[in-house]
Amino acid sequence: MASKKPVNRPSVRHPSHNHPLRLSSVRRTSYECDACGEYGSGFTYNCSVCKYDVHVGCAFIPETVDREDHKHPLTLLYKIPCEDGKIYVCDVCEEEVSENLWTYYCKECDYGTHVHSCALDEDYEGEEEENRESSSAASRMKSLMKAQDEMAAMKLESRMKKAANNAIIYSIR
Asked: From which domain of life does this come (predicted)?
């Protein structure tokens, strides 16, 4: 008989959301990250109350980033800096940024970018070939995000194994 105790999953308090976000594996096919708008699978920081999902890597992106082509640091905002009804356009790729996504922004210059590639890729030239090299800052961020995803997966797997072992031990007794 399996244990009826709830599995104690890691949670974080994140400034982007009012409720705690729990690390969980995705049971459905995929989800859309509420930070960057990209689809994800595997693990997410999730608020089951609000159906809010954030990639493990997005949950820990830096509060500020520097771009070589901009003289001020860009600050992470959890909501676009536009008045209601106005369209917010990324100053790097010139594509619209959905109003519910996070963005990096310089208030002094009214300059903003998408959260990931546009925020760090100093060499962006719009329609460039897919295999272009990333900047060193972008490479570091991608490596960090991958490592954080792997670490979160290992922690969750360890906790799940421990819970399964405990259930076996209790069922033998």
From this structure: Eukaryota
